[in-house]
């Protein structure tokens, strides 16, 4: 009867280690490819055409805002 069959050997441990490292490498590479592809599919940061709208209430003074300012009432 061969009782040594269930023991782990150095060669078997090397094969298991190499397989696990290869699996981790494939996962990291797939993740990197996914990141690059998703980065290329993002919307552009700025629109191609800028529309200019007049600013609402652009002629309001600080007195009309009732903002006291840094020194109090500002009167």
Describe what you observe in this structure.
The structure is a single chain. By secondary structure, the chain is mainly alpha-helical. Helices cover 41% and strands 0% of the residues. It is built from 1 helix and no strands. It has one helix spanning 10-40. The radius of gyration is 34 Å and the shape is elongated.
Short recap of the structure:
This protein is mostly helical.
What is the topology?
Elements: H1 10-40
What tags apply to this protein structure?
75 residues; mainly alpha
Q: Tell me the span between the first and last alpha carbons.
A: 105 Å
Give the % helix: 40-55%
Q: DSSP helix count?
A: 1
Could you list the spans in which at least 5 consecutive residues all have pLDDT below 50?
none
H/E order of the elements?
A: H
The biggest sheet amounts to: none
| Rg from alpha-carbon coordinates | 34 Å
Question: What structural class results from the helix and strand content?
Answer: mainly alpha
What oligomeric state do these chains adopt?
A: single chain
Globally, the shape reads elongated
Question: Taking all residues together, what is the mean pLDDT?
Answer: 77
